[in-house]
Each structure stands twice: as C-alpha cells, then as structure tokens.
Amino acid sequence: MIRFLFILLFLGFSFGLYAETNVTEECNQEWICLIQTKDEDGIELSIRNHNPNPKITNSVLLNATLINFKTDLVFPYFVVVKGPAPVYITKFLLEDKTKNAFHSFSFRVRPGDWDSIHDDSVSYLLPFSPEIRAKVVQGYNGSVTHFGNFAYSIDFGIPVGTPVHAARKGYVMATEARYSEGGFRRDLLSKANFIIIQHEDGTLGNYAHLMKNGVVVKLGDMVEAGQLIGYSGNTGYTQGPHLHFEVHKPNRQLEVTTIPTVFKTQYSDRDTLNEYYMYWHPRVGINTKTDILEEDIQICKLTTKREKTQCGETSFQLGENFLVSLEFVRPGNQRIEVDISIDGKGFEPMKLDWVAQRNLAFEGRYLSIANNPKFIGRWKVRVRVNGEEKKILFFDVKA
C-alpha cells in the first residue's frame, strides 16, 4: 500500500488596514508555496510549486475562511499548478476598511494532474533489471490490498536489495527513504519508502516498499525508462519483501486513482500481468512455453521456524531443515512427484506426491534431516512434473 501524499497547510491571521503593499510567501515542505500580496484593498493570492522544475505538476484543493472579505470564488476551489510560475487565484477584497478582518487558508496537495489523460499507447518496462525474473504475488483486484482506488496495482515478489528500474521516462516528483520497518500493521501504512515519477501525460508511477536509504535519484531528476532508481525492500504495510508498482493520478477528492497498464514481457510487447505468473524482460535463451524452468527447482535452507533463508544449497548438517522449492512460470494444477534417496544407503526412497495449487506463488515441501549418523552422505532429489523428469538435485549431509 502506498503512502498518502496529501499535505495540509493552514495559514490564518487577523489584520486591519494596510498602508502599503506587503508581499509574503509561505512554503510547505517541497510542495506548494502560497504568495499573498496585501494592500489597503485586500489580499491578492497566488500559488506556485516549490520545486522549480518546469515539468512538475501538483493538484491543489483550496479552502478559505473569510471575515470582512468578499470573493466570487466558490470553495473548495480546485487548481492545477504546473511548472515554477505562480498561478493567480484571485483578489479577496475588504468589505469594510474601517473594521478588522480575518482570513484562513487551508490546502490539500497531491502530486500530478487530476485532469490528465493516460497515454494508453505506452507499454511499460518491467520495473527491475533485465537479469531478474519476478512473480506477481498480488495483481489487479488483489484481495489483500489491491481494491478500491488501488485496484490496478501490482506487487512483484523480489528480495530486499533487488535493483529497481524506471518503468517509464519521467521526472522524480517525490521520494522517501528514511524508514526501516515493515509489517502487516495499520500503523505502518504511512511508513513505506517510495519513489514517485511524473510522466509526460501528467500521470505518476509509484515504486513503493523500498529499503531504507534505497533511493538513488533525487527530486527533479529526469530519468529514462530502464534507469536504476533504487532498491526494493520490505518497509511499510507489507506481508513480506516485494516491490509495489502502480500508475495513478489524483481525483477531485485528492485520492489516488490507479490506472490499468500494459508491459513489455517475455510474452508480448503489450502484456497485461496476471497474479502468480512470473515475468521477465524479453530476451533469447529462455523457453517461454514451459510451465517451469529448471533453475526454478531448488533446494533451500530453512530456519528452525521453517522460514526460507537461501536457495541453491549443496551442504546441510544433521538436524537442519530443507525445502524442495518449485516456482512455476504460471500457475496450474500440475502433478509434482519428488523422490528423495541417499547414495549408498539401502533405504527406500522417500516419495512426495501432490498437485500444485493455483493460488500459490510457489510450491514446495518442507523436510527435516533427523539427527542420526545414518543420514550422513550424499542425498539425491529427483523431481518430476506431470510425469516428466525435470531435474535431479544433490546435496551433502554432514555431522
């Protein structure tokens, strides 16, 4: 889930008559500056972007409380501020110059243009390097967090520290990199690290749950599609390490409205991503028709709590736990058979046999190596899928 980026700015004061023109400017962090020009007739109000980049756009919702002022504006008043030039709002005229007056302005700001129209001809790059293959662990209309305004969001299951690359060209609009904690708790909803990039059509790309200090671009940078921008993490409201990606724009309530997008993948130049499917950048040498690649059948080491720590292991000790892990390119009801034996031992091979579940990101079976010297030796794991032998793995067990 992304961080809500609206900001409240309240300015209120009372005054009497002005003998001469007085110009003040109040800025709210990196977002919006309020310019007030006061004279004996009243207050002229303008708004500008704090960021001087000519491509930066913010949507602003303005409210005002006025005593002894008159205006033709109806509040709330909506305005889109583009680039560094101030946008004139209005002049609030004093009704009775013999009396004191009061005004208070409140603002809500969200990056982007609520009037923007997404360029549907754009095909996005996958937001990670060409060497990475990643599974969509939560897709569009996902049951965990991808519903309502966030329905068209995608979560890629990648480890902490995985390079994140820009999916589309644009300007860095906002970043956050100070947080370190992640978990499935409501108090962490606003504590995800992120990068928001504004596209040429006024929409925004959001890359969220980055690692602490995992942002390598700065505000106002122009980035190209495919450029390294940061590193994935597990910060904010999350059930585990992943990269959250979405394209959105604000609506008139300053809420995020996500937009469906297509990507360049191994299958197509305009691919709609599906939950539990694995994706990678188009490249030769990988069979796109197979349900599982040989490299995605692995032996993984487990903690005592049966948490996966690392895969590709070839050496274990008595008493340790391991996982036979299979990550399918696309989900299905494949039948999986695993035979486990020890070379030179007369034991009957252990047989595992099950049918893959369509709603799982990966398939696997946990096993414990008994703390018994007779299990020392070279172990052999034979894996078949739908009756076809896919891979034979070996690892050594030592005392």
What would your notes on this structure say?
The chain is mainly β. The chain folds into 3 domains: 7-111; 123-280, Glucose Permease (Domain IIA), CATH 2.70.70.10; 294-398, Immunoglobulin-like. Strands 11, 12, 13, 14, 16, 17, 18, 19, 21, 22 and 24 form an 11-stranded antiparallel β-sheet that branches. A 5-stranded antiparallel β-sheet has the order 2-3-4-8-6, with no helix packed on it. The chain has no helices and 33 strands. Helix content is 0%, strand content 49%.
Brief account:
Residues 151-253 form the M23ase beta-sheet core domain. Keywords: Signal. This protein has strands spanning 7-15, 22-28, 32-39, 42-49, 57-67, 69-70, 77-82, 87-94, 101-111, 123-124, 133-138, 153-157, 163-165, 170-176, 182-183, 193-198, 204-215, 222-223, 228-232, 236-237, 243-250, 256-258, 262-263, 278-280, 297-302, 308-311, 315-317, 321-326, 335-342, 350-355, 363-368, 377-385, 388-398.
Structural class: mainly beta
Q: State the CATH topology of the largest domain.
A: Glucose Permease (Domain IIA)
CATH homologous superfamily designation of the largest domain: Glucose Permease (Domain IIA)
Give the amount of beta strand, in percent.
over 45%
Helical proportion, percent range: under 10%
CATH architecture descriptor text of the largest domain: Distorted Sandwich
Taken from the alpha-carbon principal axes, the silhouette is elongated
User: Ends: how far apart?
Assistant: 45 Å
Organism: Leptospira wolbachii serovar Codice str. CDC
Keywords: Signal
Protein name: Peptidase, M23 family
Pfam families: Peptidase_M23
